[in-house]
Amino acid sequence: MEIKIVENAKEILCDVLIINKFEGKETSNALVNRFAPKSFEGKPGQIFVIHTQKEYPATEILAIGLGKEQEMDNNIIRENIAKAIKKSIELKAKSVAIDFSTDYEFIIPAIMGLSIANYHFDKYKTKKEHRISEVYVSNVSGQAVELANTIGESLKLARNLANEPAAFATPSKLAEIAQGLEGIKTVIYDEPKIKEMGMGAFLAVAKGSSQSPKFIHMKYTSDNPKKRIAIIGKGLCFDSGGLDIKPPASMLNMKDDMSGAACVIGVMKALNQLKPEVEVHGLIAACENMPSSSSYKPGDILTAKNGKTIEVDNTDAEGRLTLADALCYACELGVDEVIDIATLTGACMVALGTAAAGIMGNDDEFIKNIIEVGKCSGEKYWQLPMWQEYRDNMNSDVADMKNTGTRNGGASAAGMFLKEFVTDSVKWAHIDIAGTAFLDKPYKEFCKGATGAGVRTLLSYITCQ
Ligand code: BES
Ligand code: MN
Ligand code: ZN
């Protein structure tokens, strides 16, 4: 999809001209004012399409309701542009022009809505999905378009990676992609090195698979970084559950268990273009959780990088084991802040559904900041408690802790487990995207499949430092 800035989008020869309509206000378009029915009031999401019969350069004009002008915000624009784009795709449009009459800085959320709605994962389909290929806009700055494009491309990369089958998106493949990112210094640690670093928890999870594990360390930095941040993505390229194998229905989408890793790769890709004045470490402990004669077993006792021991209670609680070692590694880098993002618990999905990701950590102010940034970027977060009660369930008779407690309160229990591997002086936030990373059916701007959860929030959090 190519976005072109033109003098006047209204005058462009194209398939669909998209204009806005505010509730209680006429549009600036005479044709729409002449023909729109009374029922088209401009309520959010209302659509009116008119064939212009050659009275206009555009073949069709699509007016989209945005509600009351004074109530406009990024979310209303993004969601409604997405709706207009889906309608334009239905109309088989190839080229669209967007002409919004508003003082609101609409272009960034508009392009986000556009690129989210115009996405399909059809790499493996012989017959490709219909897409918009040309977009014309006017009265916007080239800089804003470029920024939105960069975020859009990162989101697309993250979605593609999580949509790819596990046979393609292997630990080695993620490592290869990380190494190919422009302007990012990447170091890959192979199995012997991972062992040497003392990552006994991560290695145990990887043991059952013929795919070798990779610990991926990407680094972006500006000349005088104001802050040092580590972002860690859960990188389970496939989660079968291991010996505590999942039932078929629960295993079906487990190629998405590296959505956190996909998010981190997407974010790192954009940093070289956005050039924020920070240092960012992107970390992924990539592996597969498989049942085999070499798998780790219930009852095994593992030693994590910080020396703490873990009794394996359930091999399906593998994500927290890989993250434990990655968190230790991040804290040893001496960063100011660590954010981990993971498809960690079914419990989080049960609690919050696809509407919001869970967030928790050791610093309420830090968490609040991320939640606020998320609100403007179109991603919702809900803070979950970190109470000692959840940790008490994980006491072990033979090791420092077990890797699971009771199923109830599972999202907070996983958070309390991770906390054991975080140095107190480091600000840490844990984001559980089990419910938001992958959709069983279309939802809001998104089609079925991967959503690129976290990319927009982490990018705007990092760039607003
Ligand atoms: N990857 C899963 C969590 C998950 C579930 C992500 C559904 C997306 C959708 C994780 O590794 C897992 O299996 N968690 C277990 C933990 C349990 C054994 C304590 C779960 O949530 O059932
Ligand atoms: Mn699991
Ligand atoms: Zn998992």
Topology:
Layout: E1 2-5, E2 16-21, H1 30-35, E3 47-51, E4 60-65, H2 74-90, E5 95-99, H3 107-117, E6 134-137, H4 142-163, H5 171-179, E7 185-189, H6 191-196, H7 200-206, E8 214-221, E9 228-239, H8 248-251, H9 259-274, E10 279-289, E11 301-303, E12 309-311, H10 319-332, E13 337-342, H11 346-352, E14 357-361, H12 364-377, E15 381-383, H13 388-392, E16 401-402, H14 410-419, E17 427-432, E18 438-439, E19 449-450, H15 455-463
Parallel strand pairs: 1-6, 2-4, 2-5, 5-6, 9-10, 9-13, 12-16, 13-17, 14-15
Antiparallel strand pairs: 3-4, 7-8, 8-10, 11-12, 14-17, 18-19
Bound molecules: ligand BES, manganese (II) ion (MN) and zinc ion (ZN).
Describe the structure in your own words.
The protein has an 8-stranded mixed β-sheet with strand order 7-8-10-9-13-17-14-15, with helices on both faces. A 6-stranded mixed β-sheet has the order 1-6-5-2-4-3. The protein is elongated. A hairpin with a 5-residue loop joins strand 11 (301-303) and strand 12 (309-311). With 465 residues, it is an alpha/beta fold. Helix content is 34%, strand content 21%. It starts with a strand and ends with a helix. It has helices at 30-35, 74-90, 107-117, 142-163, 171-179, 191-196, 200-206, 248-251, 259-274, 319-332, 346-352, 364-377, 388-392, 410-419, 455-463, and strands at 2-5, 16-21, 47-51, 60-65, 95-99, 134-137, 185-189, 214-221, 228-239, 279-289, 301-303, 309-311, 337-342, 357-361, 381-383, 401-402, 427-432, 438-439, 449-450. Bound molecules: ligand BES, manganese (II) ion (MN) and zinc ion. Zinc ion (ZN) binds at residues 236, 239, 257, 318-319.
